[in-house]
């Protein structure tokens, strides 16, 4: 097996919660709490979970926009977790983030040419003509009119702005793109355009994606493998087929069962799992299995012992004492440590 | 007069602005009976929220230019006085918004707000109204309602706030309930709880329910009938089965093709609609959808000159498209449907 492009090991981010004038620390939001996964070259790994479960924070930790409080980020074999900003700069380019909000992530006072062209200048393309040509090529690649070089972001629709953001990202020639909810702010018909664009670009430019999203249907469509997060932890990680066809973690089962299905005839026959209540606060997450307050299978052990993330089928990891769909004969082995 | 519970006829709601006239709703007609649920779907800016605010009379006194008729239980509301419509609001009809925080007052407890809404329309003591509020909070699934009635909105989680807003909307037994994106801001597991709740309540209260959303899954879960809006107009209307199983409008096909589905084998590619939704200041001439329509060339040059009428294709299923009915059906069966299903 080839070395993964990105390897995240026991990654942790505890945001301090302070109180009073002296900013005394009274607790911590465990936004990301011991997350491990690999992203292989050329694949798309989807990261799903409900709001506040730590998806965005994970992305920001990997790209070193924020500093982790524990764990490691290894990119192309280099441990970049504590690399200095000076040393990390060249790697920054290899790892780029696409953001959810196509409105606020573009500078409104810069033309599309300036926004998309800036990375080329950094890369040493210095002539005006050279930059213009490079920018126009990339605009065409993402399906924008190259003539729109001199326009400003507000002259574009939401979907077009998301394309401008993608063009800017591609201009840096990254190896890994971390896309945080790349389509969730877009209208349905535009979502599909951007999803197709991301797929085409991946094939053409040999890109690797980590796609963060809450929409389970979109994630199934674009991912090769999928990780499910709940309150700062990965509870299940499997290839697409395994995760969607035989989900093992009760939370994954509940999530899939909650997705409304656009089939008026089928709705009567569907068996549904309905969870009680909302996701608990990450400030005071439930002990042991964090899902036990909402889990219909919870037993005493779930409240006292944290279930480790184990490989229960080839390539299928689950953190649960009583998994669903688990093969009966499987010899569990601890996956998190490999 | 109208014999229907709700009968909207040729409703137009236009807003004059510095940039020009915004035709947010441009000739919308539909009917709804008690005990039935109508889903209104469309992308952002298609006029869904303006329609719902229009029915509730919330544009009255503003800049909006409103024409057409809205018949509610035998009364016409467009020509009625703002005071009269205000009295109906909360009593006969009420609304559930996308963002419960903006619809609730942050400085008053949830209970106080329900009590006040109830006492505007019902001459009862505070004590009776409070009991009613506790009952309602329990009914919508708030745990320990006798305690939580004294909580402030910010002390509730997102799902509980949405439940509290539903309780508020139900406080006067409305006969018409309009829910505008009631679950868009919620997580999927909480959304499922709220959709179940709305389904149960609608059955128990026998109200007429309008659910407005951009999510085809959500409409399919709740609706008897569905209205698809594009550029301020209805472009297709029919039973939920008409819309999902034999849709006849190219825009509806586009919506279905854009959406990956969990209940089917994954398809290799999504089938998006080209371009983006129109500005309601410059709605394209003729069929508003023609710049994005893959079948525009098959309508003999009429697409960009003549606005197609909304005509019945069969049994209450209405479509606004110049393509002949037989051709639409053939395209759906041979060019669209197979691509939505195969891998
Ligand atoms: N820039 C942002 N930062 C943080 N959260 C955001 C941002 N933009 C949107 N959200 C949140 O993401 C969720 C989805 O928002 P989104 O804009 O996709 O809604 P939508 O489905 O388009 O709604 P609408 O139909 O009202 O436009 C919401 O809970 C919203 O609060
Ligand atoms: N700077 C911060 N300070 C304190 N808490 C934070 C900070 N950033 C994020 N959080 C908290 O961490 C949790 C995870 O956040 P996030 O990763 O943004 O969730 P997601 O992207 O999955 O919606 C949330 O409870 C959030 O409120
Ligand atoms: S460990 Fe227990 S509580 Fe946690 S998901 Fe499994 S069965 Fe449920
Ligand atoms: S009228 Fe013409 S352009 Fe409009 S939807 Fe029908 S085929 Fe397309
Ligand atoms: Mg996020
Ligand atoms: Mg709206």
From TrEMBL, chain A:
One of its GO terms (molecular function) is ATP hydrolysis activity. This is ABC transporter domain-containing protein. It comes from the Bacteria. Pfam families: ABC_tran, oligo_HPY. SUPFAM superfamilies: P-loop containing nucleoside triphosphate hydrolases. Residues 6-256 form the ABC transporter domain. It comes from Acrocarpospora macrocephala. PROSITE patterns: ABC_TRANSPORTER_1, ABC_TRANSPORTER_2.
From TrEMBL, chain B:
GO terms for cellular component: plasma membrane. SUPFAM superfamilies: P-loop containing nucleoside triphosphate hydrolases. It is a peripheral membrane protein. Keywords: ATP-binding, Cell membrane, Membrane, Nucleotide-binding, Transport. Residues 8-256 form the ABC transporter domain. One of its GO terms (biological process) is peptide transport. It is found in: Cell membrane. InterPro entries: AAA+_ATPase, ABC_Ni/Peptide_Import, ABC_transporter-like_ATP-bd, ABC_transporter-like_CS, Oligopep_ABC_C, P-loop_NTPase. SMART domains: AAA. One of its GO terms (molecular function) is ATP binding. Pfam families: ABC_tran, oligo_HPY. Belongs to the ABC transporter superfamily. This is Dipeptide/oligopeptide/nickel ABC transporter ATP-binding protein.
């Amino acid at each position: 097996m080839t070395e993964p492009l990105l390897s995240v090991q026991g990654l942790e981010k505890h945001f301090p919660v302070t109180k009073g004038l002296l900013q005394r620390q009274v607790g911590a939001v465990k936004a990301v709490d011991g997350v491990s996964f690999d992203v292989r070259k050329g694949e798309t790994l989807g990261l799903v979970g409900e709001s506040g479960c730590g998806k965005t924070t994970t992305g920001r930790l990997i790209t070193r926009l924020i500093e982790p409080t524990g764990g490691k980020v290894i990119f192309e074999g280099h441990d970049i977790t504590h690399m200095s900003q000076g040393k990390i700069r060249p790697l920054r380019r290899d790892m780029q983030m696409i953001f959810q909000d196509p409105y606020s992530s573009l500078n409104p006072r810069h033309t599309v040419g300036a926004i998309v062209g800036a990375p080329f200048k950094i890369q040493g393309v210095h002539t005006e003509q050279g930059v213009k040509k490079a920018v126009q090529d990339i605009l065409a690649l993402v399906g924008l009119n190259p003539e729109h070089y001199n326009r400003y972001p507000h002259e574009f629709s939401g979907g077009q702005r998301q394309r401008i953001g993608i063009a800017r990202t591609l201009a840096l020639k990254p190896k890994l793109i971390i896309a945080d909810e790349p389509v969730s702010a877009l209208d349905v018909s535009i979502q599909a355009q951007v999803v197709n664009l991301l797929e085409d670009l991946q094939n053409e430019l040999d890109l690797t994606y980590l796609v963060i999203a809450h929409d389970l249907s979109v994630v199934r469509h674009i991912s090769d493998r999928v990780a499910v997060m709940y309150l700062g932890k990965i509870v299940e990680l499997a290839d697409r087929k395994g995760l969607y066809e035989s989900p093992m973690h009760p939370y994954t089962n509940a999530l899939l069962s909650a997705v409304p299905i656009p089939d008026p005839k089928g709705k009567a026959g569907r068996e549904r799992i309905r969870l009680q209540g909302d996701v608990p606060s990450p400030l005071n997450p439930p002990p042991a299995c964090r899902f036990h307050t909402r889990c219909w299978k919870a037993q005493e052990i779930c409240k006292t012992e944290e279930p480790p993330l184990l490989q229960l089928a080839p390539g299928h990891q689950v953190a649960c004492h009583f998994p669903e769909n688990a093969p009966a004969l499987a010899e569990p082995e601890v996956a998190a440590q490999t | 007069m109208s014999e229907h519970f709700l009968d909207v006829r040729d409703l137009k709601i236009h807003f004059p602005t510095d940039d020009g006239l915004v035709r947010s709703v441009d000739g919308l007609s539909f009917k709804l009976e008690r005990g039935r649920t109508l889903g209104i779907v469309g992308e952002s800016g298609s006029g869904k929220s303006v329609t719902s605010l229009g029915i509730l009379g919330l544009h009255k006194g503003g800049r909006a230019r409103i024409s057409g008729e809205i018949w509610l239980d035998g009364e016409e509301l467009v020509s009625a006085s703002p005071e009269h419509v205000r009295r109906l609001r909360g009593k006969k009809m009420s609304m559930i918004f996308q963002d419960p925080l903006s619809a609730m007052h942050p400085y008053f407890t949830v209970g106080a707000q329900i009590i006040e809404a109830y006492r505007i329309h019902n001459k009862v003591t505070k004590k009776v109204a409070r009991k009613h509020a506790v009952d309602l909070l329990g009914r919508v699934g708030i745990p320990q309602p006798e305690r939580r009635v004294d909580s402030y909105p910010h002390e509730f989680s997102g799902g509980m706030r949405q439940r509290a807003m539903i309780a508020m909307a139900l406080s006067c037994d409305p006969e018409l309930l309009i829910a505008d994106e009631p679950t868009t801001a919620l997580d999927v597991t909480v959304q499922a709880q709220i959709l179940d709740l709305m389904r149960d309540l609608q059955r128990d209260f026998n109200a007429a329910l309008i659910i407005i959303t951009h999510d085809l899954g959500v409409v399919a879960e709740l609706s008897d009938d569905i209205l698809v809006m594009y550029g301020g107009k209805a472009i297709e209307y029919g039973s939920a089965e008409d819309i999902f199983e034999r849709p006849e409008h190219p825009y509806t096909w586009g919506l279905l093709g854009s959406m990956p589905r969990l209940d089917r084998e994954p398809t290799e590619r999504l089938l998006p609609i080209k371009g983006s939704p129109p500005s309601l200041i410059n709605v394209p001439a003729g069929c508003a959808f023609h710049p994005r329509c893959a079948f525009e060339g098959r309508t003999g040059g009429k697409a960009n000159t003549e606005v197609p009428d909304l005509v019945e294709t069969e049994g209450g299923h209405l479509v606004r498209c110049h393509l002949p009915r037989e051709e639409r059906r053939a395209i759906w069966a041979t060019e669209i449907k197979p691509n939505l299903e195969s891998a």
